[in-house]
Structure formats: structure tokens, C-alpha cells
Write a structure and sequence with these properties.
The protein is mostly helical and 210 residues long. 70% of the residues lie in helices and 0% in strands. The longest helix has 29 residues, at 116-144.
Length: 210
């Protein structure tokens, strides 16, 4: 006779909010990464500067939410994670024309992040990009002689380490009490963030491909 304990069905464990967001955007994320690298952003400083402009648009679009007092109540230390100023300093390092800076600012200003829950998805994408930035920083150093002090400031990791910093963010994100509808709004926000990033890559990097 079989052991009753062996017959009990095991309930599948519900994924954490951050894991659920990752699953819902993984294909889009991988596609974006491959597209960026296919456009050779590290072949010279001119092309890298175009990549920096795509990053400037993305970080400026979500900066107000990083600075949001409401969100900082739920995600402590969020303000310090904002990399919009760092990427603007990178733009200054390359002495980008005022017309380009204004165009990027305008592109970011045209983005509508409608509410708190949509912002969570955007923040997940932008904050998560700091993990992959470790590899980009290595390329920038090796091929372009850039660093966290010049041209690649926005790619710098946290002094506590990228992994720990990301896990702390995910822990705070996963602790939020959200219903399914709110999670769906956040997922749509994450998808919008990836779509905006892809749009900027196609507008800035792709047309300049040799």
C-alpha cells in the first residue's frame, strides 16, 4: 500500500513578483541586447556616444519616478539608484551638441508613465540594466579607454556590488502587496520600457551603422 504522504499533490510555488516580471519580458530583453550588440556600439567613441544617447533618453524618462517620495516609501533608497545625472555627465564628457541634448530630453519628456504600478515595471527594467552594465563597462574600458570617471559613469556598479544591490531592490519589490491586475499593469510598464529602449536604438544607432 502506498504511503499517503507520497500521494499528496504538491502545490506549485507562485513566482515572486520580480521573477514573474523577468519571465514576462525575457524574450524582449534578449532581443534588445542582441540588437544593441549587433550595431557595434563599442567599435569607436562616436558610435558609443550614440549608445549613451539612447541611455540618456531612457534614464531621463523614468527619473521622476526614482525621485518620487511615494515610491521611495515602498522602495527605500530608490533616489540614490537614479542614474540620469551620471548619464548626462557622460554626455558632457563627449561634448554632445546642445541640439542632441534637447532632442533626447524631448524624447524622454514625451514618455507617459501613467501611474505607480506602471512605474514599477519601468524601474524594474532600468534598475535591472545595471547588472548587464558590468559587461558593457568592460567593453568600454577595453575598446574605448573609458571608465567610471569618464564616459561610462552610468555603467558604474554600486560600491556594495551589483549583485547585492540588485537583490536588495528585488527584495523590496517582491515585498509589495499587489493584486493580479496591478501586477499586469507593472508588466505592461516593463514592456513599454523595453519598447522605448528599442525605439531609441533604432532611431539613433541603427541609421548610423557603417
Amino acid at each position: 500500500m502506498s504511503n499517503p504522504a507520497e500521494c499528496q499533490s504538491v502545490e506549485p510555488t507562485e513566482p515572486t513578483f520580480s521573477a514573474w516580471l523577468k519571465e514576462g519580458t525575457n524574450t524582449t530583453h534578449e532581443s534588445l541586447d542582441k540588437r544593441i550588440m549587433s550595431l557595434s556600439p563599442f567599435s569607436n567613441r562616436e558610435r558609443y556616444a550614440l549608445f549613451v544617447r539612447t541611455q540618456s533618453r531612457l534614464h531621463q524618462a523614468v527619473s521622476d519616478w526614482f525621485q518620487s517620495d511615494e515610491l521611495n516609501n515602498f522602495l527605500p533608497g530608490l533616489k540614490e539608484r537614479d542614474r540620469s545625472e551620471a548619464v548626462l555627465q557622460d554626455c558632457a564628457d563627449f561634448e554632445m551638441p546642445e541640439s542632441d541634448l534637447k532632442a533626447d530630453q524631448q524624447a524622454a519628456a514625451e514618455v507617459t508613465i501613467s501611474d505607480f504600478h506602471s512605474a514599477l515595471g519601468w524601474l524594474y527594467v532600468v534598475e535591472g540594466s545595471n547588472l548587464g552594465a558590468a559587461f558593457l563597462l568592460k567593453y568600454a574600458r577595453k575598446h574605448l579607454d573609458l571608465s567610471e570617471e569618464f564616459g561610462a559613469r552610468h555603467l558604474a556598479g554600486h560600491e556594495d556590488g551589483r549583485g547585492l544591490h540588485w537583490r536588495q531592490f528585488k527584495t523590496a519589490l517582491d515585498a509589495l502587496e499587489l493584486n493580479q491586475e496591478q501586477k499586469e499593469v507593472a508588466l505592461n510598464g516593463a514592456k513599454q520600457a523595453f519598447a522605448f529602449a528599442r525605439q531609441n536604438v533604432e532611431q539613433l544607432l541603427a541609421p548610423a551603422t557603417p
